[in-house]
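How a chain folds remains the central question behind the approach discussed here. For one protein, we set the task of working out the structure tokens from the amino acid sequence alone. The sequence in question and its structure tokens are set out directly beneath this paragraph.

_____
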Amino acid sequence: MTSKIRLAVCAAAALALITWVVMADRGDIGSRAQSNNTETVSKPRSGLSSEVDKFKSILSSAKSQADSAEINRNAPEPEYASQAEIEAMSIDEYLDYMNGLIETLPSEIQAEIQTRKAIADKYWESLGFFSEEQKQGYASYDKETLEAMGNQGDLLAWDVLSHKNLTEDRSHAKFVETSFKSVLFGSAKGARSMANASLSKQDRNPSNDTEDRSHIYNAMAWLEIAIMMGDRSAPSARNAKLGAKEITLSEQEWALVRRRAEAINGRLNEKRREMGLPEFNK
């Protein structure tokens, strides 16, 4: 394996971590907006310090390969934050910190990261996950225009419309309706929103029966749909939601979740056939 190929491997590994962090943020926006009616993010998701430990190893390997390839670098040595400092960072601060670490890598690796990041961005956008900058570009459109664009398959329009229904109209029902429609057009982000809606509905109307977990099963089923659609970060979101509620599901309960997911998938495909769209692949 040549030095350049080894550098590309290191670059891909570094990109995988950065993409995971960015998508963890994009994927959780919906649940935070539902809880707080805002998209202000104060803390990163749990476990980021362990991810930074992985990145340190990747960075060290990349630098070692760069040294062996005699690549000239003038970048300063990175200064690693402590675990306590990382946990205190906001998402934006954390991403700035990680980008700073990337900037210490050789230029060849940085160029490879940017190329692969562009490919990764397109993949996530095809599943309905967009940056705040992209959503701001649609913020001025009225709801009728957004819905018309969404009905033409524009997932960004559905995402912005769902957010408007939740934060401007304060309408949980409209949020669910537009989220469901976005799933019909292929939005895994919409499936995440359906899961969040199920959990938030139970939070607003708690059952007196502490053993009633139907809202949990529904939420997990929608996350299964997101996974079927290609959402690679949905499994970590699933674990985080269960962990936050201190809930562990039994094998029998997971079997129930999978049956519900199959039923939802069947309903989605029936609707897609009515719309003249092909069925989802499992």
User: Anything to note?
Assistant: The radius of gyration is 21 Å. The chain has two domains: 3-125, 132-274.
